[in-house]
Amino acid sequence: MSRTAVLAGLSLLLAACTSTPPVEATYYRLQLKGNLKYLDADHCTTTLALNPGSTYADGACQLWTLVDVGGGYARVQLKSSGEYLDAPGCASPVVVGARSTVQDGACQEWRLVPDTDGWSRLQLKSTGQYLDAAQCAGPIGLDTASAYLNGACQLWKLVPVSPG
Description:
InterPro entries: Ricin_B-like_lectins (IPR035992), Ricin_B_lectin (IPR000772). By secondary structure, this protein is mainly β.
């Protein structure tokens, strides 16, 4: 092996050892203002519900991360399966689903629309509708506006979860 090849290999090895480690995703629980329960993929399935807490799969059925897609929108990804908050066909009910290309992915792209005191609405890109828990109980779907409990069934808070 030539000296040049050895030096090139050593340079690559050193670069790999000194590179910045990957950034871990920040996970959140999505808390509904109307009842202070959390958005939950029931037993880590595709069905969404509201739950005060979960130990199933070490709580991973309630852990979400935001995956930036640009333009102020993100996909909301479930930790346990890697799937996304999804409005199939851009309509209700909202479920957990595999990555979708329907309307160029806009049925899975959400933005936070700030309200007051740290609460926000989650707005779907394709329709402009908001993530809604009907009468703050379920099912989880989409709606343009909600007057029930002064709109608290559409107000969500990102509650950071400590890694580990």
